[in-house]
Amino acid sequence: MVNSPESRELVVVGAGIVGASVAYHAARAGADVTLVDVGRPGAGVTAQSFAWIGTAGVRTGPSARLRMAAPQEYRLLEAELPGLPVTWSGSLSWGVADTVPEVGPGEEVVDAATVARLEPGLRQPPEWAVWAPGDGAADPLGVTERLVEGARAYGARVHADTPVVAVRRDATGRVAGVETGAGPLTAATVVLAAGVATAALAAPLGVQVPVDPSPATLFRLRAPAGLVRTVVHNRDFDLRQVAPDRLHAAADSAEHTLTAVRSTFRGAADVELLGSGIGVRPMPADGEPIIGPVAAVPGLYLAVMHAAVTLAPIGRLVAQELVDGVAEPALADCRLDRF
Ligand SMILES: Cc1cc2nc3c(=O)[nH]c(=O)nc-3n(C[C@H](O)[C@H](O)[C@H](O)COP(=O)(O)OP(=O)(O)OC[C@H]3O[C@@H](n4cnc5c(N)ncnc54)[C@H](O)[C@@H]3O)c2cc1C
Fold it and tell me: Is residue 271 one of the residues assigned to a domain?
């Protein structure tokens, strides 16, 4: 048992893509859910995400298994939430490793001719690339908003622009809800899905959550229609077309990204930078998700992870644990007590 039945009354702190998914799935499973965010849903790091849905070469550890299951979990969500803004273009990775890597399930190594067929705009297709046809990408803000809307449709209450200042406990030390800038909210279970702020919210309870802030930059580019067909991952950038005249790139510098895009694709001479944003990713110390109840504080549950756009739909498993009170085997290696 991870939780008792009264824990069906939940406050989820943080309406990024993780908290929105947990709130949606828990409300759908019959929990009494209140979702609280200091700002607007999705406006944290989620809004700055490149939002590739895939394993990104991660082969081992609990996150690898969960990432592999993610496309299937997204398909379930798409069936439940028609119009969920997710696209399935596949991904092509090359030049990241010096030698041909061992590919994972659902991936294959393809030759230059196949790469050229998949990305006809390339000036010089690499000799080989890893093709993951099942990969996709999300409009991360759009998915988050749709999950919040879905949670509301199942009865969840959503408080935006409401900071949670503390987790409340009763005389026995059990979680009793949260204190917010607008007053207290009562609940038997509090899910901390507050991204980089999770550690600061847990610390006053004597709970150390080893999550580091990890900044990364998203570049928004104007580009001709159809320049990039798949999610492209190489040493210079992660790159994808998000609209007929727009590309998004996750990369280190604007100048290098522009030079690399122009030299990698034909017809890219006029690609220009429209803007950029820095997102601060919550990065667990060992890179693996931190998901589950905290034994020392009954009623406290953590949901913080990296590559959380990919992992977000596993909010379904989190909700199952929270609502049914039965530990989910797929999350067994994600617990805080491994540290
Ligand atoms: C450039 C870049 C590229 C990326 N590329 C990918 C990728 O390709 N694929 C992938 O899967 N992931 C990618 N990521 C990572 C991904 O974006 C994050 O893992 C994910 O968005 C984290 O979601 P979250 O819900 O945990 O955090 P957040 O979106 O930050 O949500 C946390 C929420 O908690 C709220 N909050 C904080 N404190 C409080 C408080 N005290 N009270 C109330 N609310 C509070 C915040 O306002 C925020 O809305 C990328 C990130 C960046 C920056």
Answer: yes
